[in-house]
Specification:
With about 400 residues, the protein is an alpha/beta fold. It has one domain (about 5-25, about 45-260, about 340-395): 3-Layer(aba) Sandwich (Rossmann fold), CATH 3.40.50.1820. The chain has helices at about 5-15, 30-40, 50-55, 70-75, 135-140, 190-210, 225-245, 265-275, 280-290, 300-315, 345-350, 355-360, 390-395; strands at about 90-100, 105-110, 120-125, 145, 155, 165-170, 180, 220-225, 250-255. Strands 1, 2, 3, 6, 7, 8 and 9 form a seven-stranded mixed beta sheet that branches. The protein has a two-stranded antiparallel ribbon with strand order 4-5. The longest helix has 19 residues, at about 225-245. Bound molecules: 2-acetamido-2-deoxy-beta-D-glucopyranose (5 copies).
């Protein structure tokens, strides 16, 4: 088997169940293996501008445009198919982050149903790179609604974070979900640095649009490849506050889950997990342990052979929840509680309904492709740079 097909097999393993079940992983992190072989230089990709900023001590002013009236314009009347008795405000729309290239980020904002004016503001980010915080974070994980199996109606999520906070779900970088650029070559530049800068510009403008949130306690949370986005955005905020001697954004904390911080430990941990859960044999595990250097620029052929064996041994399991049934499998009927493995299909259907897009103030420029939970991620540069230094920098 050619190395490329081994890589493909490996990818399907971690992104889980592409093809046969039409299901995909949440935030496919594994792409870096592919990227490593396709472009080893990506390992040296420039990292967040925030460190450069720290070095130079210079504040690069961000683009700010007048936001008057836009909060009211972004208010969602009612989402199609939403349940009765919704008592919180919802907003959605675009924030332009680069008027020259025509780059705009899409957000969905769920206020808290009670005492929202005394509750903190949280920004939620999914990873990928290339996965949507609306499709994954809001509609599958921590948002107020989930989509029923009809793909048309919604039900309330009893564990929604907006019960305790006012939560912004940002589709980033441009090219993800409804976020776009009129200059499509921008998508190829949407690395960590661009993502942090655009997210910062988004926040500054968003706070102009929602001025009542300007001094609010602010938190950034995210998962997966947002293990890069969260600390880099946090550091951008901290440094800009420092350089301008103002609390431009009142950042109080960050939270990350299942985060990618360091390629080598993540990969090692993943295979340890597969091995300790009897998904791969001792022999395969030893082979990986002895032959795979996940810190290396490119991995050896023999390593790929072991990864391929691991993939074959695991078969079709949903690697984000190995005990969960697969979408389309006979063991799956109705789940009274917990995760429905087909939910991403319902979300894909729902968010592509024209009335839903209209209600969300989304896709106002008639983007020439459908909404997808994870898209274009081949073109979103994946940085292999360990994020440890960012996390460590918060200690001071
Ligand atoms: C992108 O182009 C469309 C069509 O010209 C325009 O309506 C839209 O405002 C542009 N987007 C941005 C962010 O400038
Ligand atoms: C809202 O805030 C008031 C005053 O702090 C408090 O008494 C009340 O319990 C809060 N309501 C909810 C639902 O948290
Ligand atoms: C982005 O990069 C990919 C891969 O190099 C290339 O095929 C594509 O044409 C580029 N897209 C744009 C819009 O520049
Ligand atoms: C793994 O690769 C890294 C980066 O090239 C290198 O520094 C390290 O020595 C390698 N480790 C082993 C055990 O070969
Ligand atoms: C945007 O709307 C057009 C129809 O105007 C539709 O064909 C396209 O799939 C939509 N794109 C997204 C990203 O929703």
């Amino acid at each position: 088997m050619k190395p490329e097909s081994a890589v493909f097999l490996f990818l399907t393993c971690f992104t889980a169940i592409i093809g046969a079940y039409g299901e995909r992983g949440f935030d496919p992190l594994d792409k870096f293996i592919w990227a490593k072989r396709a472009n080893p230089r990506l390992s040296d990709a420039p990292i967040g501008g925030n460190l450069e900023l720290a070095k130079n001590g210079v504040y690069s002013p961000v683009y700010v445009s007048p936001q008057d009236g836009l909060m009211e314009a972004d208010k969602i009347d009612k989402l199609p198919g939403q349940p009765e008795g919704v008592t919180f405000n919802q907003y959605a729309g675009y924030v332009t982050v680069d008027p020259k290239n025509g780059r705009a980020l899409f957000y969905y904002f769920a206020e808290s149903p009670s005492n929202s004016s005394t509750k903190p503001l949280v920004l939620w980010l999914n990873g990928g790179p290339g996965c949507s915080s609306l499709g994954a974070g809001a509609m599958m994980e921590l948002g107020p609604f989930r989509v029923n199996s009809d793909g048309k109606t919604l039900y309330q999520n009893p564990y929604a974070w907006n019960i305790e906070a006012n939560v912004i779900f940002l589709e980033s970088p441009a090219g993800v979900g409804f976020s776009y650029s009129n200059t499509t070559s921008d998508y190829n530049l949407s690395g960590d640095k661009r993502t942090a800068e655009d997210s910062y510009t988004f926040l500054i403008n968003w706070l102009e649009r929602f001025p009542q949130y300007k001094t609010r306690d602010f938190f950034i949370a995210g998962e997966s490849y947002a293990g890069h986005y969260v600390p880099q955005l946090a550091q951008t905020i901290v440094l800009n506050n420092k350089i301008t001697s103002q609390t431009v954004i009142n950042l109080r904390g960050i939270a990350i889950g299942n985060a990618l911080i360091d390629d080598s430990t993540s990969m090692k941990g993943m295979y340890d997990y597969f091995w300790t859960h009897a998904l791969i044999s001792d022999e395969i595990n030893d082979g990986i342990r002895l032959n795979c250097n996940f810190s290396a620029e490119s991995m050896s052929h023999v390593c790929f052979q072991y990864l391929e064996q691991a993939d074959a041994a695991m078969g079709n399991v949903f690697s984000y929840d190995i005990y969960a049934p697969l979408c389309g499998s006979s063991s799956f009927s109705t789940l009274s509680a917990g995760f429905d493995p087909c939910s991403s299909n319902y979300i894909q259907t729902y968010l592509n309904i024209p009335e839903v897009q209209t209600a969300l103030h989304a896709n106002v420029t008639a983007l020439p492709y459908p909404w997808e939970r994870c898209r274009h991620y081949d073109h979103f540069p994946y940085s292999h740079f360990s994020q440890r230094q960012y996390y460590q920098s918060f200690k001071s």
